[in-house]
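Listing 4. Sequential folding, example run.
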Amino acid sequence: MRALVVVLPIVSILIGLYFITLGLWELREGVNKQLYIKYMFTGLFLLVILTPMIWLFGSSLLFRI
């Protein structure tokens, strides 16, 4: 359980960076702006919102156990 609290934010960061990279690549090609927006917001959500939530709620769960 403790290892999962450490691994999940790292995986979330890596997937978020991957989506941001895909979004920047889509912007570079300039083919589909809608796909660029989808990739960027997904990546930013994973980096800015989901990762801190996992850290906060995961650490509070560890103190309960």
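-- end of first protein; second protein begins --
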Amino acid sequence: MPKKERKRLQVVISEEQDALLTRTAYELSSPERLISKSEVVRLAIEKIARELGEGEHLEEYRNLLENEDVADDQNG
């Protein structure tokens, strides 16, 4: 079966965010299956998009994005 075509995205993250990704991947992993940081990012994208589609957590996400540690440095 051919692999799904995927787009590549390079994102600059802080050391703290990288540590959060690593910790989350470790916590989601099991002895049978290791979860990669890329999988965590894809899961987060899907979860956020689903929640926004259902009208959930909109203001919470907006407030998080106003935080300098989360917002894109090119936004302003």
